[in-house]
């Protein structure tokens, strides 16, 4: 059962504030005798704050991801995370280990979705930055089940997607992802999931990488009424390192690198066409984490991150 508490309030909560705020984050850092190495690795704990008639009720529940279930069953960490690479069966012979390595060239990422709660259509999902998302019930915090975006049956197939999509006034969701391995030409993908579940999701546009083996890492992007703003920044994924990480025994996090020679770029939505950017030449870190706002003012785009 979920832990449910009526919270103590030091200041007053206005009675017009009604509804439920759902968040998530890392909540459990050890399983049995094993521990995670990084704050980004902890098993997802879903929290909710329900505001009703000036009172606040807090509730929390661990996300019952396949990762959570596998770890709990084994009583140790058996699924690799951003900063923790683990090997499910250390007793396997070299042949079996090599075969496991080939299966892991397309990394079977964790579904420990600990970054954000997002809405696609009418459904709510715990999300991280990989192909797996886990649907949750926003009221009970029960896990409904996992969905993979890496499947040819999907209209949108990708390896990575941000945990920070945008929503328009009609409730449609816009997000960006990356197809790196096993999904045809490597590319960034901008897609739309309609608010109306009877309509299908669609890819709005794709953008090829500037450098095939070093796509940019991006944690979020900008959106205005008419534009998607994407900075192809100089903090990058190293595809060769990613494909060999499992065999080399290093974590996924070590496959990211900052390219000091690169100034970053603003690709336009037409493939191959780049906008002239005004990223300051003197900037040493054209690398944004969260996009706070993007808005169009006459001929300028104001991008705040
Ligand atoms: Fe974030």
UniProtKB/TrEMBL annotation:
Keyword flag Transferase: no
Give the record's keywords alphabetically.
Iron, Metal-binding
Q: How is the cofactor bound?
A: Binds 1 Fe(2+) ion per subunit.
- Give a GO molecular function annotation for the protein: carotenoid dioxygenase activity
- Give the domain of life: Eukaryota
Instruction: Write down the required cofactor(s).
Output: Fe(2+)
Please list the GO biological process terms of this entry: carotene catabolic process; retinal metabolic process
Please give the residue ranges the record annotates as the region Disordered.
286-305
Residues reported to bind Fe cation? 164, 219
Q: Which family does it belong to?
A: Belongs to the carotenoid oxygenase family.
Protein name per the record: Beta-carotene oxygenase 1, like
Which species is this record about? Poecilia reticulata
